[in-house]
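$ ./design --mode recover --in tokens.txt
reading tokens...
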């Protein structure tokens, strides 16, 4: 049990987009991944009730205010690699949905953020991540 609890102590939550009702596209706040190692898990949690589509992807940059590009290496929670030009969640429409993406920290640059596109509707959702801190 000690090995498991030691590992869990290093897990750190980070919010890419706190829960909110959004009517416009999201260009999220950047999160510094410099102190993380290994795989990062990102979770999209969408409440039922939207009347259009919602698309969410993860981007990264070398600096907080720099130019962001799509992260392109991602795995599904079951470990299978997702064939994608971008680390993106499956499109969500009107029903509640919870999705997970896993990608190696090395697939992204130092700073990551979530970017979403919504078509003319309000969607209530959050985007959160969990990773292992190097020196926790």
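writing sequence...
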């Amino acid at each position: 049990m000690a090995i498991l609890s030691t590992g869990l102590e290093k897990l750190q939550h980070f919010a890419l987009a706190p829960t909110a009702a959004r009517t416009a596209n999201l260009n999220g706040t950047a999160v510094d991944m410099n102190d993380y190692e290994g795989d990062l898990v990102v979770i999209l949690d969408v409440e039922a009730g939207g009347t259009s589509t919602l698309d969410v992807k993860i981007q990264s940059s070398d600096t907080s205010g720099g130019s962001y590009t799509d992260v392109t290496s991602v795995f599904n929670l079951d470990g299978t690699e997702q064939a994608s030009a971008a680390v993106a969640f499956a499109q969500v429409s009107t029903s509640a949905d919870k999705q997970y993406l896993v990608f190696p920290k090395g697939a992204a640059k130092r700073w990551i953020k979530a970017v979403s596109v919504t078509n003319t509707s309000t969607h209530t959702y959050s985007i959160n991540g969990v990773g292992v801190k190097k020196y926790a």
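exit 0
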